[in-house]
Structure formats: C-alpha cells, structure tokens
Amino acid sequence: QIQLADSGGGLMQAGGTLRLSCAASVSGPSFNSYSVGWFRQAVGKEREFVAGTSWSDGSTYYSDSVEGRFTISRDNAKKTVNLLMDSLKPEDTAVYYCAAAYSAWGPRPRRVVQFEYWGQGTQVTVSS
Q: What pLDDT sits at residue 29?
C-alpha cells in the first residue's frame, strides 16, 4: 500500500516556473518498488501522462508535450517525487496528480490503468 500527497500548484503567468511535490507514505513493498509519475487532466479532457521516474533505475521519461520544459526527480530516502515545470504555457493548465505503479507493470509505465495509487490532485493554472 502507498498513499500519496501532492502539492505545489497555483496560478502562474506564461513563461513562469512552478514546482510540484509528491510525498509518499508506504506500507508493504518499499517505495523503491514503485514507478512514480505525474499526470494531468484539463477540463473536458482525459487524464494524460506527463512524466515518470522508473522504479528499476530511477530513469526519467516524459510526454512529448513537456519534454525539455519539465523535470521529474525522486528521492527514495525521503519518499518524495518532484516535478519542476519551466516555460509554462496556458495549455499546461490542468489538475496535476502524482501516481504510483508497482514494479510488476514494467520499468516505464505510462497508462492510467497501470497506476494503482493516486494523490488528490493540485490545480495548476497558467495565464497568458
């Protein structure tokens, strides 16, 4: 079991920077056994993958829409995962969720169905 608490959203002008944080509480398999990702869901749209960090080697991977602008990082000792969002655009406006996928789903899960555990979400609004 893993519980996630995400935070750090807010209102930002286009071109600005925001940092989201995700803190995990774990019972059972260690935090190292989970890939952790960030997803987002805009109004009227499906939830989509944004960025992930692999349980197997800590490597990172991104969606094409944020590659080069967002940076995900994890600290296994602190059980935290952060998402640094740079060069924000109005189309980045959404509720952002951190989520965890157990290692059985493979090293780089991206699909919503692969992530069993979710934070409550944090709103990010980017104004033009």
A: 85
Residues near 78 by Cβ (< 8 Å), separated by ≥ 6? Answer: none
Apex CA 35: angle with CA 33 and CA 39, to 5°? 150
CB 20 within 8 A of CB 99: no
| Ordered alpha helix ranges (H), the chain | none
CA 34/CA 55 separation, integer angstroms:
5
How many residues appear in the chain? 128
Q: For residue 50, give the amino acid letter.
A: V
Residue pLDDT, tens place only, 43-90: 999 999 999 999 999 999 999 999 999 999 999 999 999 999 999 999
3-state secondary structure of 5: strand
